[in-house]
Structure formats: C-alpha cells, structure tokens
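In this supplementary section we document a worked example of the pipeline. Step one takes a protein sequence of length 135 as its only input; no multiple sequence alignment statistics are reported here. Step two produces a three-dimensional model, which step three serialises into structure tokens for compact storage. The input and output of this example are shown verbatim.
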Amino acid sequence: MRNMLDGFKTFIMRGNVIDLAVAVVIGAAFATVVSALTEGILFPLIAAIFGEPDLTKVWAFKINGADFSIGLFLDAVLNFLLVAAALYFCIVFPMNKLAERRARGKEPEPAPVPEPNVVLLAEIRDLLAEQNRRA
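The serialised model returned by step three reads:
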C-alpha cells in the first residue's frame, strides 16, 4: 500500500500533471472571458445584422420533417474561432515573444576550440594536399 501511495505522489508531482491542472483552471477561467465577449459584444452585433440574438436560428429549414440548422454549425465554428484567436493573442503570441526576448539576451555559445593535435593534423593534411597539386 505504501509503495502505491509513493508512486501516486511521484505521478502527481511530475511537471506534466501540474501543468495540465493549471491549464484546466486557466482554460475554465478563460472560457468565462470568451463567453462574456460573445454574449456582451458579438451576439448583440449579430442581432443587429441578422435580427436574431445568435446564429442558431439563422438559415434554419425543414425537409420532410428533418430540421436543418446551418446557423447552429456557423455559431459553433464562430465560437471555436473566437476561443482560438483569444488563446493565440492572449497566451501563445506573448509567450513566443517572451521566449524570443530571452533568447536574444543570451550570448551565443563560442565555437568549440579544436584540440592542438587536431589542428596539427589538419595542417599536415593541407600541406600534403598542396604538395600533391604541385606534383
């Protein structure tokens, strides 16, 4: 039993699990921000253009009793694009810029200095190649 608990503790304390937990919490909080954006700004704009508060009732029709709602699909696509754009511009883009700044601050590593015997062998090789060209 103790071994199993130690294994669980090791699993939980790994960086991947903690990163995932943080991502879930941030994602839930971010969803409320995107929801407020869509309900407070986007849906009123859609209502002004299409006369409906959202796209679910736009381009809806029936064929032989089957309901088709193109607007429902467009609403889901629009919501996905909003979430993806907000995530990119609020999280991914700033993190990439931060990584670039950090990389710029570091000095490039100097080229490795070859060992003296390697330099000597290269000089001998070059001299032999030059002698062969003259001959």
